Amino acid sequence: MNNEHEFYRELSVVPDLPPDLYTRINEQIKRRTRVLRSLIGLAATLIFAAGLFGILTRQQPKSPFANTTLQPEITAELQQVHDYLNAGDLEDDLAFYTVFSDY
Amino acid sequence: MKELDDVTLKRAIKGDRHAFKTLYEYYAPFIWKVLYSMGGRDMMTTRELVQDTFVKVHAVLGQFKGMSAFSTWLYRIAYTTALASLRRTKAYPRSATEITTISSPDRTDTFDDRELVTKILSSISAEDRFLLTAREVDHITFDELAVITGQNSGALRTRLHRLKEQIRKMFPQEIFTATGVSYE
User: Fold this and answer.
1) In angstroms, how far is the first alpha carbon of chain A from the final one?
2) Interface contacts (A, B; CB < 8 Å)
3) Nearest to B137 among A1, A12, A28 (CB)
């Protein structure tokens, strides 16, 4: 080779494209697609499982008084108040006592 | 470069496997040629580069918006994919004695010419190998090369000019070393 023209002529000489190359490319594409689908499926499964777990384990908030027991005297008084409130017309009673309280 | 017909291209973008194969068969010879040079004229390296390129193309084909010619977009993917792969593997061309000969029944050129081309190419960067082959062999315009490489077309012209000067200087020394004969 003794001139530049020969160099560029030789540069353009390349071996033929291998005939099996597309098969390899196709296989790699299929593999990649399978991996992507598996990852998406796994992510969806995890999200669903997390949601289901959250629903199943959700509990009503406990009342701070759930485990307390009231003394009998207090229970009786509360019952009295309850009976009184539910017995008659509270507004009439209030009006009656208001009249008396003005004196 | 004459582009693939729009109908096949659109079908390939939509995921038609047969259309993608047609796209590959149309453009692969051009990509093969430029990546053969970029990969240091090594068959195994070139196979991997072309394979990676078209797997990448398949993955991002839906992102082609037609802002440039498809071939330009394809060359850009080939260029960036090959550069990343070569940097990652540090795949430099092997010594001339390990290069397999190219069977070329129509030509009578000697092995020495191919060896010389390989040795000269091994002394320049992968980016320069791409620039040289894309411009001098595939005749890609500087405007297209600017899109492909992300560099200014004026800077590419300057770079190619200097590169050719550098290569020109290599000839007498290489020939002298190879044959032991002095040239005037």
Assistant:
1) 130
2) 75
3) A12
Q: Do A11 and B137 touch (CB under 8 A)?
A: yes
The DSSP annotation for A74-92 comes to HHHHHHHHHHHHHHS-HHH
- Pick the more confident residue, B110 or A7: A7
The answer to whether the Cβ–Cβ distance between A22 and B171 falls below 8 Å is no
Q: Which of B23, B21, B43, B19 is nearest to B114 (CA)?
A: B43
ipTM of the complex: 0.73
The H or E element containing residue B76 is: helix B70-89
B69 closest CA partner among B150, B4, B153? B4
Q: Which residue among B29, B104, B167 sits closest to A17, beta carbon to beta carbon? A: B29
pTM: 0.68
Cβ neighbours of residue A57 closer than 8 Å, sequence gap 6 or more: none
Q: What are the tokens at B38?
A: 């970029």
User: With an 8 Å Cβ cutoff, are A10 and B113 in contact?
Assistant: yes
